[in-house]
């Protein structure tokens, strides 16, 4: 976009011209980089072959321990109408043992309500 040449006394106009030139140069350089990157990505996609039929190597790590979905805990303090999850209300008494979902038992343990 051609602009008129600014007078030497017009500092703001000269700065605007310089900034516009720099912006145009930066935009053209960014376009060049973008096109080069796109060409490299396209070339990589055209030349790369991924074999999904090969079976991965399996390393024997020994027996695997699966965590139980429940956990037995003894509660340290009374908890009345405790909510855990959507619609799950619990009333727990101190000293009583409970079998609870592992996530809930771990949560109570983090908060310090499980007797150790």
Question: Can you describe this structure?
Answer:
The protein is of the alpha+beta class. The protein has two domains: 8-52; 70-111. 41% of the residues lie in helices and 16% in strands. The protein has helices spanning 11-47, 102-111, and strands at residues 70-74, 79-83, 89-92, 97-101. The chain has a two-stranded antiparallel sheet with strand order 1-4. The chain is elongated and about 90 Å long.
SSE blueprint:
Layout: H1 11-47, E1 70-74, E2 79-83, E3 89-92, E4 97-101, H2 102-111
Antiparallel strand pairs: 1-4, 2-3
SS-derived structural category: alpha+beta
Percentage of helical residues?
40-55%
Q: Main beta sheet, described? A: 2 strands, antiparallel
The structural domain count equals 2
Low-confidence blocks of residues: none
What general form does the structure show?
elongated
Beta-strand content estimate: 15-25%
Spatial order of the strands forming the largest sheet: 1-4
Q: What is the average of the pLDDT values?
A: 84
Q: What's the N-to-C terminus distance?
A: 77 Å
Brief account:
With 116 residues, this protein is an alpha+beta fold. Helices cover 41% and strands 16% of the residues. It starts with 10 loop residues before the first helix and ends in a 5-residue tail after the last helix.
């Amino acid at each position: 976009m051609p602009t008129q040449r600014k007078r030497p006394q017009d500092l703001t106009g000269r700065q605007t011209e310089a900034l516009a030139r720099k912006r145009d140069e930066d935009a053209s350089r960014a376009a060049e980089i973008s096109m080069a990157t796109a060409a490299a990505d396209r070339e990589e996609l055209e030349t790369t072959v991924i074999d999904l039929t090969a079976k991965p190597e399996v390393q024997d790590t020994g027996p695997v321990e699966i965590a139980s979905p429940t956990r037995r805990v003894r509660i340290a303090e009374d908890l009345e109408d405790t909510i855990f999850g959507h619609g799950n209300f619990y009333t727990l008494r101190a000293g009583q043992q409970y079998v609870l979902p592992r996530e809930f038992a771990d949560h109570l343990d983090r908060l310090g309500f499980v007797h150790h």
